[in-house]
Amino acid sequence: MLTRTIACLLYPDVMSLDVTGPMQVFASANVERERLGLPPLYRLLLVGKRAGPIATSSGIRLHADESWQAIDGGTLDTLLVPGGQGVDAQRRDTALVAWLRAVEPRIRRLGSVCSGALLLAEAGLLNGRQATTHWADLETLADEYPSVQVQGDRLHTYDPNVADAAHLFTSAGVTAGIDLALALVEADLGRPLALAVAQRLVMFLHRPGGQAQFSPLLILSANGSQRLAGLLNWIPAHLSEDLSIEALAERANLSTRTLCRLFKQDVGMAPGQYVERVRLEAARSLLLGAQASVASVARLTGFGHPENLRRTFQKHHAISPQAFIERFG
Question: CB neighbours (10 Å) of residue 96?
């Protein structure tokens, strides 16, 4: 198996974890291969405008091995474009933007981590494509690049089974880049070795790319509101019960109109959407732990019939519960 060069772009004020997280996954894959008596597959390369140390947004300096201006794009297998505070300055670097356009057809895989998607969008590489980025940059991506099909509620857009999505892809904020890198390793080397890497890094093999960027159970604390705290704390323990708007309003001693208004203001979604998200997360946890059959999970989490659970899984994750178990359980 020929060595594959995995390159990651460096620039001033890049997010250090956007670089080191994914690159460590590939490095750990090499270690796991060596444990099996196999040669390393990946050659890791950091590229900047010029070779030398570059200060990240954390103040840590990373060393660019080579200048991207001198690299033959055809020698790269995969190029990752990270995000960070300095990404806006890079969007104004016409030479870098032109280089990305030029190398894109010559690279097997080109992807972004976090707000690095903005740089790919500036180069016009995401036009007509589905893309995601850090949740804080979703509005910027949608407003400034209307040709991009922004997918806010997912971790990454890589799909090895779809040619376009296997060649050019994006990922959400920071640690989602690690999920993306694990998905790339699994596509290259198979699930057992990717699992060994994940175990070595003390993390899940990978969350599905279509998973939400953050749990609905964190929304209340993130917004700091206490008006619905009692109800939202009660919902997860009563998923198999009637959680219709009318039942929730009665539980909270509110009118249905007031309940819907408070959910929109404090949670950012309708009561029914929130309940569906919490039920789906509970179902995912049960399926990942192989704690019950699909039918039992559907009953326990309030979906009732397995077909209801299947439709909801398909809507949010583009995968069936059974396929989810086989791939991620």
Answer: 21
Q: Which of 6, 25, 114, 252 is catalytic?
A: 114
Residues 29 and 176 in one domain: yes
Residue keyed to tokens 């599905």: 208
Quote the CA–CA distance of 17 and 155 in Å, as a whole number. Answer: 16
Does the model's pTM come out above 0.85? no
C-alpha to C-alpha distance for 269 and 145, rounded to whole angstroms: 25
116 within domain boundaries = yes
> For 286-304, how does the pLDDT look when each residue is reduced to its tens digit (9 = 90+)?
887 666 788 888 898 899 9
Pairing of strands 78-81, 4-9: parallel
Same domain assignment for residues 42 and 148: yes
CA atoms within 13 A on the CB side of 52: 3
Measured over all CA atoms, what is the biggest interatomic distance in the chain, rounded to whole angstroms? 67
CA–chain centroid gap for 32, Å, is 24
Q: What is the 3-state secondary structure (H, E, C) of 63-124?
A: EECEEHHHCCHHHCCEEEECCECCHHHHHCCHHHHHHHHHHHHHCCEEEECCCHHHHHHHCC
Closest C-alpha among 191, 173, 170 to residue 119: 170
* Residue 321, domain CATH: 1.10.10.60
**17 and 146 inside one domain:** yes
CA 144 – CA 97 distance, rounded (Å): 16
Separation of CA 77 from chain center? 21
Domain boundary among 155, 171, 200: 200
Which residues span the domain enclosing 323? Answer: 216-328
Check if 8 is active-site: no
Encode 104-128: b = buried (16+ Cβ within 10 Å), e = exposed. Answer: beebebbbbbbbbbbbbbbbebbee
pLDDT digits (tens, 9 = 90+) for 243-267: 999 999 999 999 999 999 998 888 8
Residues 106, 182, single domain; the answer is yes
Q: How many domains does the chain have?
A: 2
Helix (H, G, I), strand (E, B) or coil at 296: helix
User: Where residue 225 falls among pLDDT bands split at 50, 70, 90?
Assistant: low
Choose the final residue of a domain: 166, 200, 234. 200
